[in-house]
Amino acid sequence: MPSAAPDPLDLLDLDALLSEEERQVRDLARSWVRERVLPELEEWFERGVFPAREIAKELGQLGFLGMQLPDESGSPTVGPVGYGLAELELEAGDSGLRSFVSVQSALAMFAIHAFGSDEQRAEWLPPMRAGEAIGCFGLSEPDAGSDPGSMRTRARRDGGDWVLSGTKMWITNGSCADVAIVWAHTDEGIRGFVVPTDRPGVRAFDIHRKLSLRASVTSELAFDDVRLPGDAVLPGAHGLKGPLSCLNEARYGIVWGVMGAARACLDAALNYSRERIQFDRPIASFQLTQKKLADMALAVATGTLLALHLGRMKEAGRLRPEQVSVGKLNNTRAALEVARTARSILGANGITLEYPVMRHMTNLESVLTYEGTEEVHTLVVGQTLTGIRAFS
Which of 46, 371, 374, 375 is labelled catalytic? Predict the structure, then answer.
């Protein structure tokens, strides 16, 4: 016989499916977010700032940067599920925090690890893992988002060098990055380049007046005839397969992360509903409120179970990009609906920064769009079902 009622925030007791190591990673991330990040997060969000340098070093000391990649000895550090759990706990703090780690780990570091030369790996991965160097990933452009093949950024050979020109848009970590992984058309097809941001001709402009991901650095990057040595190119990446594989790695983290935002909204709504008195009763006692809470708890439980299942598939080497699209599509939709429902339970209080709900809701509006829009992932799933490609 079960000895205790289920945890409302873990309705299916998924904790029992985790290894001790995975729980330790999760608990470390959870305690750091609660003790270090949450006390300052409201101010960061309200002011539209993110102390990237300071946070990067702390994340590096905790081992949360590039944690899903083998270390310098070639040994695995944390498995896919442990990495996912850390992403979940980081986004339970804020999507901007999880985005910082995702871009550093799953886009910039993964690109260098998977496609870089030994020299590029030796130069950049150790300081990036330690949080001493920050990376960003330049693929999206002002006129090329869902269709990266239409990018206008170009790199041409000039003797033994490369000359890079173009503009990248909506770049997380852009203005605080030490190195940018930049994708460009060349005479050899689309190639990736490791670009130190102190190179002459590299400029970054922060995007202001954001109503979402305010506790995050978002930038436009401009490359004005930036001269790079011949060995700046990523030797293992040819065509769109390179950047798309990086995006797939980042999307896997999103599948987990958004469930952290959803859980935080559920937690806030549960606590509020027990304390808020109307008609001489806590609103948690009303049937319509209980239906909302039940729907939210089901969404958090099933979304986290889906993330765990995809994590186990990734461990086994069986996870396909189409299945990551299923996770990203389902879990971002579900998390956004949980946030909206939580806001309705909190009423007018739900729009203030006193509670995390509206902050998570506006962040999730961006997460729904980046790393592949809802429409793109829907059509990926549609093609998987029908065998017919609905977009070029």
Answer: 371
